[in-house]
Amino acid sequence: MSNMSTTTVQIPFLDLVTPHKELEEELLSTLRDTLGTAGFVGGPKVEEFERDFAKFCGAAHCVGVASGTDAVRFALTAAGVKPGDIVVTVPHTFIATTEAISQAGARPDFVDIDERTYCMDPRKLEEYLEQHCSVDANTGKLIHRKLQAPVTAVVPVHIYGQTADMDPILDLAHKYNLVVIEDACQAHGAEYFSKKSNAWRKAGSIGHAAAFSFYPGKNLGACGEAGAVTTDNEAMARTMRMIRDHGQAQKYYHQIEGYNGRLDALQAGFLSTKLRHLANWNRQRQDAAKRYDQALAGIAGVVAPVCPDSARSVYHLYVIRVSDRDALQKHLAKAGIGTGIHYPVPLHLQEAYRHFNYRTGSFPVCERVASEILSLPMYPQLRIDQIQSVVREVAAFLSPLRATPKAEQVQPVAL
User: Fold this and answer.
1) CATH assignment of 278-408?
2) What pLDDT, on the 0 to 100 scale, is given for residue 3?
3) pLDDT 10s digits, 179-234
4) pLDDT tens digit string along 21-41?
5) 109 close to 347: Cβ distance less than 8 angstroms
6) Beta 179-183 vs 209-213: how paired, if at all?
7) With helix as H, strand as E and coil as C, how does the chain read?
8) Domain coordinates in residue numbering, the chain
9) Residue 50 confidence (pLDDT)
10) Hey, which CATH number is domain 17-273, 3.40.190.10, 3.20.20.300, 3.30.70.20, 3.40.640.10?
11) Residues 120/162, Cβ–Cβ less than 8 Å
12) What's the pLDDT band for 4 if we cut at 50, 70, 90?
């Protein structure tokens, strides 16, 4: 018989059980109603969620779809991105971002990220557009000189629950006539202060359109797969409603070829129920992040998340950086603390994109960050004592001979 024992995770990386237990009766009521009406696809539940989520984001329209990947793909297609176009994004994101670009027929290309926020660096975007591209005198289109293809869109990713610096990105897009599709799949409720508008704006209301994922682990998660696109552009919304439903605006009359990318009515009902709690859940995440910030401030060797004054993060993830990330992750696992890595291999170095001929060193900030990031437990129900335990173990790993009073002084955050 083996003497080895397996540590039971005491602090999970993500707790999806508790919120569903808390909302069990509301969710079961939605299920019963759906079973009673047999309205499984489309209909009032989808329309209700679309109205409510558009209002939540401050957008005129919301189009429910089957996944966040579909949301990015349909938004690009509806915005006029054509096969052979280049769409610029970042290599520090989940592959769904670039899959959607490829599936729209375009070629993804990359610019590096801001080391403080991990979002698209507007200066690198400007460098890309000005040094690698030129405007065709005959067509007026922006052409990538080496690839000899038009650059038509930008997809900034609001990573970890924090918005990209959108004002300069939108200025560049306006200058070069580019479409901007926000990848807001991790940013439900995040806000950005636009100096141009002199106002706070929600993710989903800033670009020409925005894509959201409602994968179960998101701040607003379905009980399965789901996604949505928000936009102020009525024509784009109308086109996306056709694209998601086999290209038909009327049953059996197909204006275009589309996809089966509809949002299930049951998932829409679950999302409507959860949407009523999202603002409070986001506040709880923000409070937990402040407690982490307080406790980690006294520990050398940790880079905590940076949230600029122009952003209000909703902390889909709480991501730190340390030099020996893998060893810290193993240490925390032995202590019964779940963690994640988002994302260990930048997209430009993935086997799937070997044919693009990128090399190590192509995007140095992203590559450096990818080797150091570690996502700590983060969810609305995360308790103060759990945060204390996590930080205590981080401190024990990084400063084993030093007391860590900060880890014991995590206080409730004033609301």
Assistant:
1) 3.90.1150.10
2) 40
3) 999 999 999 999 999 999 999 999 999 999 999 999 999 999 999 999 999 999 99
4) 999 999 999 999 999 999 999
5) no
6) parallel
7) CCCCCCCCCCECCCCCHHHHHHCHHHHHHHHHHHHHHCCCECCHHHHHHHHHHHHHHCCCEEEEECCHHHHHHHHHHHCCCCCCCEEEECCCCCCHHHHHHHHCCCEEEECCECCCCCCECHHHHHHHHHHCEEECCCCCCEEECCCCEEEEEECCECHHHCCCCHHHHHHHHHHHCCEEEEECCCCCCCEEEECCCCEEEECCCCCCEEEEECCCCCCCCCCCCCEEEEECCHHHHHHHHHHCECCEEECCEECCCCCECECEHHHHHHHHHHHHHHHHHHHHHHHHHHHHHHHHCCCCCCECCCCCCCEECCCCCEEEECCCHHHHHHHHHHCCECCECCCCCCHHHCHHHHHHCCCCCCCHHHHHHHCCEEEECCCCCCCHHHHHHHHHHHHHHHCCCCCCHHHHCCCCCCC
8) 17-273, 278-408
9) 98
10) 3.40.640.10
11) no
12) very low
Torsion-angle region of 257 (φ positive above 0: left; ψ -120 to 50: alpha; else: beta): beta
